[in-house]
């Protein structure tokens, strides 16, 4: 029998001790009294390194109390009488605590209770918390790393937009104005190969039966004269001078700096050099003060005299018909190369005018569609078909290869005039709000980048905090594990003494 071990499962330990009548069933009140005495005794303790180290750990149990008594035997040995009794109140208090613990084996019941709680709850809880913080730490690092992709995308998009606009993004208003000056160069570059479309244009005219002037007129004008003003396109002669409308560029920061002079109505200067700027102060329409209905009737009954009466002649301003017409700002167009002044929309070039630029693009698409249809007919229609013979009458001199070449030339011109930089600058010049939209978009991209960077730094900081919190749990877990193993050893030894030193094994404990 001495060689047969006693195996007790951890979950059944307390029930096993109660069923063997080793400990009482209810020990809560006794433990409460003992805890009260321990609290009172701790108020008066000697200064000792071992005591400080001992009291620094977890909750004090019976085995700690035994160690405290052993230490007090050294510190309180001067109070020991010849009969072996201690006169120190400290020693008396702790001996009383030991006596209460050993009564009804309360110490064993408490040790079993703490041991089971540590094994089933405390240690697993701390381990779960550590595992949770490890997982959160890895997630923070992963999210921080994943933010590099959107940050790179925003920065690339911001850089690409600045490149398309041809600006650096430091002073947008001045840089926009400077970039708009490159528009004529971009227009000229986009149509430098436009004469390669002459063969396709002639083929389209022959097929449709249109005259040279009727067939895609804007495209033909650009091929012959280049990117001229709308005025020259409409009047078939260049203007004497060009007065392009003011730039519509408007940024929020520029709107706040408008002066009072902007409220004046400016009709331009005449040839005599006199200013025709009319301010609000000059225009005075007077007040209508008709107090009675009779006065109103009389005023309405007055006839308008256009001349002939003495009263009208006295009040009228004498008109001098000898003033040269140049002083009224009227320009008389002459013959030949003499022209007028290109103003308003006619001062824009064909590619710079919103209306004519769109018409030119439509003409290119029209020509492209025609060539694609001819190419389709060459490839798919039956050669013996009457329709095929009727369609091939005008293109019999062109094969599939030549049509493909024409189509490629048209597509190249379309691509050139539709490039990103040209489109942005075109909208920037002709739309008052487009500048604000671009500035707002650029600002939002930079804000998004800053937000991403701030979030990434926050995640990295949080990951570091989680790592530190996880590391801080290591000593706590080690202390609880050590305490639990010591309790397990004490419990096994105590039960073994009660059963003739048989081996006792607590199953289901800590690994």
TrEMBL record:
One GO CC term, this protein: endomembrane system
Entry annotated with the keyword Coiled coil: yes
Coiled-coil stretches noted in the UniProt entry, renumbered to this chain: 442-469
Protein name: CDK5 regulatory subunit-associated protein 3
Similarity comment text for this entry: Belongs to the CDK5RAP3 family.
Keywords from the named record: Coiled coil
Region named Disordered: 251-273
Domain of life: Eukaryota
Biological processes per GO annotation: regulation of mitotic cell cycle
């Amino acid at each position: 029998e001495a060689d047969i071990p006693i195996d007790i499962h951890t979950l059944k330990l307390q029930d096993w001790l109660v069923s063997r009548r080793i400990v009482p069933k209810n020990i809560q009140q006794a433990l409460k009294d003992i805890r009260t005495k321990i609290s009172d005794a701790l108020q008066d303790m000697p200064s000792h390194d071992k005591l400080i180290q001992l009291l620094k750990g977890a909750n004090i149990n019976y085995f700690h109390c035994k160690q405290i008594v052993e230490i007090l035997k050294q510190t309180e040995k001067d109070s020991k009488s010849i009969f072996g009794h201690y006169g120190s109140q400290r020693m008396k208090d702790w001996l009383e605590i030991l006596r209460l613990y050993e009564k009804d084996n309360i110490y064993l019941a408490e040790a079993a209770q703490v041991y089971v709680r540590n094994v089933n709850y405390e240690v697993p809880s701390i381990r779960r918390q550590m595992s949770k913080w490890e997982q959160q730490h890895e997630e923070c690092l992963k999210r921080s790393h994943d933010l590099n992709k959107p940050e790179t995308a925003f920065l690339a998009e911001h850089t690409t937009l600045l490149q398309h606009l041809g600006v650096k993004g430091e002073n947008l208003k001045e840089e926009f104005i400077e970039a708009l000056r490159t528009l004529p160069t971009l227009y000229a570059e986009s149509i430098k190969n436009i004469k390669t479309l002459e063969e396709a244009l002639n083929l389209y005219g022959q097929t449709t039966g249109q005259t040279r002037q009727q067939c895609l007129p804007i495209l033909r004008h650009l091929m012959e004269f280049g990117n001229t003003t709308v005025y020259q396109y409409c009047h078939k002669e260049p203007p004497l001078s060009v007065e392009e409308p003011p730039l519509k560029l408007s940024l929020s920061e520029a709107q706040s700096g408008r002066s009072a002079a902007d409220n004046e109505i400016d009709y331009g200067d005449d040839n005599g050099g006199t200013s025709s700027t009319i301010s609000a102060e000059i225009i005075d329409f007077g007040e209508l003060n008709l107090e009675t209905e009779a006065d109103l009737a009389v005023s309405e009954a007055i006839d308008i005299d256009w001349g002939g009466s003495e009263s009208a002649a006295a009040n009228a301003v004498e008109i001098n018909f000898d003033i040269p017409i140049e002083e009224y700002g009227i320009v008389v167009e002459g013959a030949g190369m003499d022209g007028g002044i290109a103003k308003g929309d006619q001062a824009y070039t064909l590619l710079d005018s919103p209306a004519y630029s769109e018409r030119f693009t439509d003409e290119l698409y029209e020509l492209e569609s025609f060539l694609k249809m001819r190419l389709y007919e060459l490839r798919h229609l039956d050669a013996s078909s009457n329709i095929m013979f009727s369609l091939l009458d005008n293109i019999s001199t062109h094969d599939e290869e030549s049509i493909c070449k024409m189509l490629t030339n048209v597509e190249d011109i379309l691509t050139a005039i539709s490039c990103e930089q040209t489109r942005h600058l075109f909208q920037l010049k002709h739309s008052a709000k487009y500048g604000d939209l671009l500035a707002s978009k650029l600002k939002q991209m930079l804000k998004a980048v800053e937000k991403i960077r701030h979030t990434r730094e926050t995640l990295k900081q949080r990951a570091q905090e989680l790592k530190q919190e996880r590391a801080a749990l290591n000593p706590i877990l080690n202390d609880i594990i050590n305490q639990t193993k010591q309790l397990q050893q004490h419990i096994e030894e105590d039960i073994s003494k009660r059963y003739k030193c048989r081996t006792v094994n607590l199953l289901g404990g800590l690994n």
